[in-house]
Amino acid sequence: MEKTQQRTGLLQGTLDMLILRTLLYGPAHGHQIGKHIQRSTNDFLHMHHGSLYPALHRLERKGWVISKWQMAPDRNREFKYYRLTDKGKKQLVVEESEWRQMAEAVARVMWPAVEES
Amino acid sequence: MKWWWQLNKSAMDLERELRSDLELEEEEQRKSGLPPEEARYAARRAFGNEVLIKEQTREAWGWVPFERVSQDVRFAIRQLAKNKGFTAACVITLALGVGATVTIFTVMDSLLLRPLPYPNSPRVVRIWNIFAPRGMMEIPVSEPEFVEYRQSHTFAHLAGFSVGALTLTESGDPLRVAASWGTSDFFAVMGTEPLLGRTFSADELQPGHTQVGILSYRLWRNRFDSNPKIVGKSILLNGQSCVVVGVMPLNFNLPSNDVDIWQPLPIAPASSNLGNHYLNLIADLKQGATLEQARSEMATILTRIQRKISSVLRRGRRDGCQSRSLARTDGRKSATHSCNPNGWSRVYAPNSLVQTWPACFWLAAKNASRRSRPEQLSGLRAGAFSIR
């Protein structure tokens, strides 16, 4: 648990980007988003609910996602589905490019030999 | 309160969201083969501290500062309710403090800040005779002086008034009312229009035609039940029939708040009664005229009055009908115009003369614009005429 928190702490600014990216596939509810990120990273990133819900509500407040209570297609139950807005899509592009720059910069410092070869 | 309602709605929404996701988690745990009881615990473990999640999510809504304030307020109220003695002391202290402040402000506001409730109030002045050697700074004027002052060109209107009391009978119990007698232009100085009827006509300001009266709003309301048909009716004042020609509005309180009836005061232009100083003067400056101009014009008129008085004095000695002190040569001689080293214009009269002729040749014009009771003012002395 401690380990996971350390990781999410490290990835604080990245969480929004991951959620937006997940929603690019289509509307999803909180549980699905969490599970998707967890599975995609082979359980490396364990989505902590204490980070997920505040992030979702923050994104909604910023207008990057909108939410709606809808019937789940496979269950006879309603869930709160989040959907990406146009503003959210633009934000995703921005964050993605920033993240890439960051990753490349870190890589150049960490593995200069790889860069030179 | 709208935000509170919205916050409640959001909280219920979050509760529902967490509940549905938790149930889903539990379902998945069950599907993976755990017994129902254990599945529930596993789901809760996976979820983490639900209360903490709610707290953290609420932070994202941006309502937290408001919530904290409302929590603080509720806490404060609880604490105050607990310490009743302390609360009472605080409330009483605040109440007295606020009450005192409001009272002081109300007085200052009406006395200093608010202009008089009359259309002409910024230009209204009061005029007095003064006799500085005896410290007499507000002496009413006599009829002949008034007739002279009235010829001034710097004032749009100049009027005199006196005050007294009358007994109102017939309509109900006899009532003693404060009354004021005004010369022509008395109402024109202030520019206030009557609420009902009219002010006095020129005819009514002739001697023998003055059995008319104007009521104050208060008397009209209290004594005549705000009768709109009061104008034209007769009332009994000091046993004499008197026709009501008008009613003044509530805010017309000249010369003071307690005056309830105004009657005309005819002044004969040929009046020679120099000894009776009973006229209080008010005037409004013409548009564009300054107090300085008024003062210098008053100085001119004053000189004229002095000349007339001197001739009356001489006649008095000749006729032998004036008092002894008036006949004294030194007294007459001293009643002249001179200048003091400060450059102030002064008019000096010997004391012996003043006893019979309290007049004095000093004139004071006071700017009464910012005060509620013009007759109560005092201020700077600037020579023969003091402007306040």
Described by strand count, sense and barrel closure, the largest sheet of chain A is: 3 strands, antiparallel
Taken as a percent bin, the fraction of beta residues of chain A is: 5-15%
**% residues in beta strands of chain B:** 15-25%
Number of helices of chain B: 12
Compute the CA-based radius of gyration of chain A: 16 Å
Could you give a short account of the major beta sheet of chain B?
A: 6 strands, mixed, barrel
Q: Which spans of chain B have pLDDT < 50 for at least 5 consecutive residues?
A: 316-388
Number of strands of chain A: 3
Shape of chain A from CA axes?
globular
Strand order of the largest sheet of chain B: 3-4-9-6-8-7
- In whole angstroms, the N-to-C terminal distance of chain B is 54 Å
How would you describe this structure to a colleague?
The complex is a heterodimer of chains A (117) and B (388). Helix content of chain A is 65%, strand content 14%. A three-stranded antiparallel sheet of chain A has the order 1-3-2. The N and C termini of chain A lie far apart (39 Å). In chain A, helix 1 (2-10) crosses helix 2 and helix 2 crosses helix 5. Chain A has helices spanning 2-10, 12-23, 30-40, 49-62, 86-110, 112-116; strands spanning 28-29, 65-71, 78-84. With 117 residues, chain A is an alpha+beta fold. With 388 residues, chain B is an alpha+beta fold. Chain B contains twelve helices and 14 strands. Chain B has helices at 2-31, 36-47, 50-61, 64-82, 84-113, 143-149, 186-190, 217-224, 291-319, 324-327, 329-334, 351-356; strands at residues 124-131, 136-139, 155-169, 175-182, 196-197, 212-215, 234-237, 240-247, 259-264, 280-285, 337-339, 345-347, 362-367, 385-387. In chain B, helix 1 crosses helix 2 (36-47), helix 1 crosses helix 3 and helix 6 packs antiparallel against helix 9 (291-319). The radius of gyration of chain B is 39 Å and the shape is elongated. Residues 316-388 of chain B have low confidence and may be disordered. Chains A and B meet through helix 4 and strand 3 of A and helix 1 and helix 3 of B.
